[in-house]
Amino acid sequence: MQTGSCHCGTVRFEVDGDLQGIFHCHCETCQKLNGTAYGSTGFTAADQFRITAGNDALTGYESSPGKQRYFCSRCGAPIYAHAESNPERIGVRIGALDSDPGIRSKLHIWVSHKHPWFEVNTSLPEFDEYPT
Ligand SMILES: [Zn+2]
Ligand SMILES: [Zn+2]
């Protein structure tokens, strides 16, 4: 089991089993919502993810139709995302984990949106959009 938390410690969560990923997403939405070059996500089954503290502080934002991104309303830390189109799956913001999840970086996606000031510069596969 993995545990995770936001920066201020209000929101805490647990993930059973292994996460899948890690995807580094360069889409404009991830850039804006994280304030970074890209967002980093590991996926888990929805029934293996639970909020254990701070549910009241968790705020959802519909970043695209049917997709909610949840963050701590006190410190602003991104926690997870959930899409109606894929209800069985949770995208965990991998930087919110408290320890090494054991999995390693797998893909760069939406590289077509990549900032010009950032070089991917790894041996990982790169995709212009979401790979099929
Ligand atoms: Zn917080
Ligand atoms: Zn993205």
Summarize the structure.
This protein is mainly beta and 132 residues long.
Provide an overview of this structure.
This protein has 132 residues and is mostly beta strands. It has one domain (2-113): Beta Complex (Metal Binding Protein, Guanine Nucleotide Exchange Factor, Chain A), CATH 2.170.150.70. Helices cover 5% and strands 40% of the residues. The chain contains one helix and ten strands; from the N terminus they run βββαβββββββ. The strands form two sheets. The protein has a seven-stranded mixed β-sheet with strand order 6-7-8-9-4-3-10. A three-stranded antiparallel β-sheet has the order 1-2-5, with no helix packed on it. The longest helix has 7 residues, at 28-34. The model has no long low-confidence stretch (mean pLDDT 95).
